[in-house]
Design goal:
- By secondary structure, the chain is α+β, with helices and mostly antiparallel strands.
- 43% of the residues lie in helices and 23% in strands.
- It contains 3 helices and 5 strands.
- The chain has a 5-stranded mixed sheet with strand order 1-4-5-3-2, with no helix packed on it.
- Helix 1 runs antiparallel to helix 2 (25-41) and helix 2 (25-41) packs antiparallel against helix 3 (46-69).
- The longest helix is centred in the middle third of the chain and has 24 residues, at 46-69.
- The protein is rod-shaped, with a radius of gyration of 26 Å.
Amino acid sequence: MTESTIWWLLAGGLIALELLTGTFYLLMLSLGVAGAAIAAHLGASVTVQLVVAAVLGGGCVVAWRSFKKHQPPALPAGANRDVNLDIGETLHIDAWNEDGTSSARYRGATWSVSLRPGAASGPGPYRIVEVIGSRLVVEKL
């Protein structure tokens, strides 16, 4: 078996392992191994192939880590519009209870509603900012 074939099999194995574990870092390492396979196709020595795999794979991991570090942290699922499409929708509240809760009709059902901490209460339109179980957390528009 040629050196390049071994490198391509290693790259495929890393990709398969990445699919099983769900880590993106193994995919970055497989790019380095693919680079070593290309170096083997070009006739590089084993030492050069290993250096290409280490530098390219390690560089991809460092670059991905740096990219992820500069991304804003994800919101919890209950407050993330990408997960819960109710976030950002509006509803009308007629009256509030003394404990800061209310009930409102939303999407054809009656929901328990509470105010976001520090939000003002009063009748009128409200925006949903979080869903906790069957309770909507709202803030005044």
